Amino acid sequence: LLEDYNLRETLAIANQIEEFAELKIKYHATKYQDFFPDTLLFIILKKLDSVKKLSAEESDWLLDNDFLQTLEIYFEQEKQREAEAKFAELKDKYQATKYLDKSISSPLFSILEKLETETILEQSELDWLKENQLTETFSIAEKQKQKREFTRLKRKYKVTKFADSSPDSNLYEILQKVEQGERLTEVDINWLKLHG
Fold first, then answer.
1. N or C: which end of the chain has fewer CB within 10 A?
2. Rg of the chain, C-alpha, whole Å
3. CA distance 81 to 85
4. How far apart (Å, rounded) are the C-alpha atoms in residues 55 and 109?
């Protein structure tokens, strides 16, 4: 009706008032009585609705004016944003960027967090990496597993002074043979003499 009478500005204000009222309900800020959208609260609620970062002044304003539930929603958004940023960082680090899902509820996020803390992955997690064709990430997980096994074997066979912990080391191959009861080759024995 307003548009029919060329009252576009009035219509825009009416729409903003309606939007402000909806945002106040959504973000638990209904105790704020003013309904005109030319307030700092409206700006803050619009930022929250578009999941944008608040300035320190804006978050302080919420605190100073006792909008604790609104502030809590903002803190949850911040926590989510930080987790998503961490997920993106871990995807880069562990070469899993071709997996497009950005959700922290994705199995990949928990797998990458385990890799970051060098926690042993379950077989189902390794299978998940294979199924999703994350071969580089799978290889990194396998290397970590081998590194732990190498460390265990070095302790068991009392060769902890050997600094190299890479599973590519000749010593790892030799210790695996010893662990499996295999006979050492002449090359293995010479390597041990040279490095022992």
1. N
2. 29
3. 6
4. 29
DSSP assigned state of 4: G
**Residue 46 C-alpha from the chain's centroid:** 26
pLDDT tens per residue across span 4-51: 556 777 788 888 889 999 999 999 998 877 777 778 999 999 999 999
Amino acid at site 150: F
Contact between residue 54 and residue 74 where contact means Cβ atoms under 8 Å apart:
yes
Q: How far apart are CA 75 and CA 62, in angstroms?
A: 12
Backbone angles phi, psi at 47, to 5 degrees: -65, -45
Residue 108 in contact with residue 82, Cβ under 8 Å?
no
Q: For the chain, how far is it from start to end, CA to CA, in angstroms?
A: 92
| DSSP secondary structure of 124-190 | HHHHHHHHTT-HHHHHHHHHHHHHHHHHHHHHHTT-TT-----TTSHHHHHHHHHHTTPPPPHHHHH
Residue 63's identity, in one-letter code, is L
